[in-house]
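Quick one: Sulfite exporter TauE/SafE family protein from Pseudoalteromonas spongiae, structure tokens please.
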Amino acid sequence: MTTSHLISALVMGLLGSGHCLAMCGGVASSLTLAVKDKAQIKRYTLLYNLGRVLSYCIAGALAAGISQQFASQSTTFSHALSILSGVFMVLVGLYIMRLTFSLNWIESVGKVAIWQHLVKLNKRLLPINTKSKALAYGMLWGWLPCGLVYSALLFAISTQSAVQGAAFMLLFAIGTLPAMVGLAFAAEKFKQILNHTMMRMVFGNIFIFYGLYLLIIALL
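--- reply ---
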């Protein structure tokens, strides 16, 4: 995995922060209601986000590790992953620009296949009155069906190993932290900026052009 891949993961997280706020912002905000000791809100918020980062890393390691078992047996499979990465990057751009809801279907699949089973664990973590519960709460909600995260996972799948897949998702998660942690610390203005129409159009076009670039490289 090249440095450009790691940079793209970080940028993808940063530019997709507006979508993260829309998807997970409500969950992060509800953390203040779930925390029993209000004096611990900031500390628990950091632990919640650490848990979310860990979930992304685990998902990246699993996805990349399993896919590479197939890719090592077939160059066609590896080539197909590269093409899919470019296609999904374009779809992410259109999704962020709100010109299409083309990623909704993958969120629906994730909801049925994974989330409806994991969400049952939520009641066991409330109220959040310990550090371990705050961390576990973040790890649980890190599996919330999200088209942007799934698209990042597709990129992680195209890396060379489970370690690289985890590293890719780590950089992606770090990119989302300023918005997610900032929201918890009352940075509502930051949310408004990221969701501004002009910002969404700029970020969306960056994703689209990068996706087209990846497609050209894969098809040459």
